[in-house]
Design a protein that fits this description.
mainly alpha; two-stranded antiparallel sheet; two-stranded antiparallel ribbon; 24 helices; 37% helix
Length: 649
């Protein structure tokens, strides 16, 4: 049967021949199972589904359309928000760094930045072709066929969900149309948000029923969908759908199709949160024992303080650790290496003064450093012990207690860097801060690397176009065993980019409970249990103890107060993991964070600490209503009169 994808962005006469399928444009990935995507001549459908081995290649092609999460050039949530600032993008299209352009307000409808529209709709077409033909493979056992169908239903759900987050209501590609379909069917319209969500959930329910509980052959199959991955994605989809951006969004009430169909329901529906609670419970119920909050138990002999730091860092950088539910197997070593090179502090400059490769091309603004809790597990602005302290006052590091593992003894830095929670020290490098690893694994602090960011220090600013940018480094994204060398030598310990992990699911569940019933409802025990489990892993006391002991307002007793706590916990726990970008949008908190808080760094060309720590405004971001959803390319709107543009574009 000849089919074509429903008209999305190209003219119907684009010869979408159903006897052919697209080859991927990516370089081979690190995993064998993705290296077998067909190369060379395009294969016909007859050949693609003539035997099991060829059909398996087509299955891998379905995976090949995964968005480039965890890459500087393809992941909008790394450099497209306010969490990390880059030396790139000072001018529109500078070095073609389109992701940075989103953060700087250069998004446009003529040539949209990070435009996944065409790419993911092509992926959906390939998925549909697979589902239409997989039953015809003669030597494919029925159990395996069912499993593969589950995987492709999962991928269809994920691709639709990704489009939904980027563009809002979208056309649904449930099946490919016949080549002779009339133009009235080909020129599709966008579907209401609630219909989009229902279809995505339907796909995920189908996937859960067909997928295996675990992967038997990790070498070949890690990264492929399982029941837990699909169930966790369902929980995330429904929490997103219940959030203010999609649930009762009056600001999108005027968005409608040409026939008058409203694409957003402006009335908030509490049952959406209840549905999200149920989905989170379902995912937690099928978590196998081997999926658990990660704890470092490696072969390095380290202090409890360093062990805590490695627990936090390795949650992201130790591949396939116990907390990873799903990671992007299309992450290429070259892309992951670039992330680490750009995030790390060149701490070994003394040994390799001619090192030119390690350029800190992106760094967190000061406001992100302020976001982390104090050592008491509460925000700086709420901690009664910080009421009389000025975070910008100078203070000198000592060898007392855990401080010796965090700040260089005798180094003068600022109060903001003292008495902070373990995630602060595991996530950030800063002027005067210790940096465990990178070739030095002795437990003695005096032998460890540290960051000296002021002029005259080993990590001083040399050439502005190479960084540093703000003065903070992203230690969390750098594997502690990655090592720099002479000139352009850098050995990066590779890890696939985490997409879903257990702490994320725990916090989604806590959030859904609070929004559905508040902190005192029938599921309140679960609410506090799961958020406290995340805190305990990170060396903090529970919410109630911390707010009762160290703040004047134990705000956890009200839905709004608990909402603030949960949101802050997510922003800290998932910092730099491509989550803040999406969370601020779905909560509709992006304008407050972008418009009211400057992107600031320190005066990096100064050696005197009094002058170095004077804050410098790097950018005043502007986030308007239209920025919640990206524009559909103007050319696509012009070709399909049924496709309406997003508000403001």
């Amino acid at each position: 049967m000849k089919t074509i994808i429903k008209y999305i962005s190209r003219d119907v006469a684009c010869h979408v021949c159903t006897l052919m399928f697209l080859l991927i444009f990516l370089l081979p990935s690190c995993n064998d199972y993705l290296d077998v995507v067909p190369e060379g001549d395009l294969a016909t459908l007859e050949n693609a589904f003539a035997m099991r081995s060829e059909a398996e290649k087509y299955l891998y092609t379905c995976y090949s359309y995964m968005p480039l999460d965890g890459t500087i050039t393809g992941d909008p949530a790394i450099l497209g928000g306010d969490e990390i600032w880059s030396v790139y993008g000072a001018q529109p299209n500078f070095m073609n760094d389109v992701v940075v352009g989103i953060a700087r307000g250069y998004q446009n409808a003529n040539s949209p930045l990070v435009n996944y529209w065409d790419h993911l709709y092509k992926g959906l077409r390939v998925c549909n072709i697979f589902l239409e033909n997989i039953a015809s493979v003669p030597d494919l056992p029925a159990p395996e066929r069912i499993e593969w169908e589950g995987e492709v239903n999962f991928l269809k759900a994920y691709y639709h969900f990704y489009l939904l987050r980027c563009y809002g209501p979208i056309p649904l590609v449930k099946e490919n149309l016949s080549i002779d379909a009339p133009s009235s069917e080909i020129r599709v319209s966008r579907e209401p948000v609630d219909d989009c969500v229902d279809y995505i959930v339907q796909l995920l329910d189908t996937a859960v029923a067909k997928l295996p509980a675990a992967r038997i052959n990790p070498t070949r199959e890690l990264g492929r969908a399982t029941k837990l991955i699909a169930a966790t994605l369902k929980a995330k989809v429904l929490v997103t759908a219940a959030s203010p951006l999609f649930n009762g969004n009056n600001e999108q009430a005027t968005l409608a199709n040409r026939d008058g169909t409203k694409l957003f329901n402006p009335t908030e529906d509490i049952s959406k949160w209840e549905r999200a609670v149920a989905a989170c419970k379902e995912a937690l119920a099928i978590c196998p024992p081997e999926v658990s909050l990660y704890q470092y138990n490696g072969n390095r002999v380290v202090s409890d303080t360093i062990k805590q730091e490695l627990t936090i860092r390795n949650t992201v950088t130790e591949k396939w650790n116990s907390e990873i539910i799903w990671a992007n197997t299309l992450t290429r070593p070259i892309d992951n290496r670039l992330v680490q090179i750009s995030a790390t502090a060149p701490v070994d400059k003394g040994r390799w003064p001619d090192q030119t490769l390690l350029n800190p091309l992106f760094q967190p603004p000061v406001k992100i450093a302020e976001m982390f809790y104090t050592s008491n597990g509460v925000p700086i602005e709420e901690d009664i012990n910080w009421a009389a302290l000025n975070p910008n006052d100078l203070r000198t590091g000592t060898s007392a207690g855990p401080e010796k593992y965090y700040i260089k003894n005798g180094y003068e830095t600022i109060q903001l860097h003292f008495d902070r929670e373990p995630r602060f020290y595991a996530s950030l490098g800063f002027d005067g801060g210790m940096w465990y690893g990178q070739g030095r694994y002795d437990n003695e602090p005096s032998t460890q690397y540290y960051v000296a960011g002021r002029q005259g220090g080993g990590q001083q600013l040399t050439v502005a176009s190479r960084g540093p940018v703000t003065g903070y480094y992203i230690k969390k994204l750098v594997h502690f065993e990655s090592v720099q060398g002479a000139l352009n030598n850098y050995t990066a310990t590779f890890y696939p980019w985490p997409i879903l992990r257990l702490a994320d699911l725990y916090l989604l569940y806590a959030e859904a409970i609070n929004e559905a019933e508040g902190p005192n409802g029938p599921n309140s025990t679960d609410l506090f249990h799961y958020i406290d489990a995340v805190r305990e892993k990170n060396g903090l006391k529970g919410v109630k103890y911390s707010w009762d002991t160290y703040t004047s307002q134990p705000k956890y007793s009200t839905p709004n107060g608990m909402r603030q706590i949960i949101h802050r916990e997510r922003l800290i726990e998932l910092a730099f993991e491509s989550q803040r970008f999406w969370d601020l949008r779905r909560w509709k908190e992006a304008p407050n964070e972008y418009n009211n808080k400057l992107v600031e760094g320190y005066k990096l060309d100064e050696s005197d600490p009094e002058k170095f720590y004077k804050r410098v405004a790097l950018w005043q971001q502007k986030f308007a209503q239209k920025d919640y959803f990206w524009p559909i390319k103007t050319e696509d709107i012009e070709k399909n009169p049924n496709l309406v543009q997003n508000i403001g574009w």
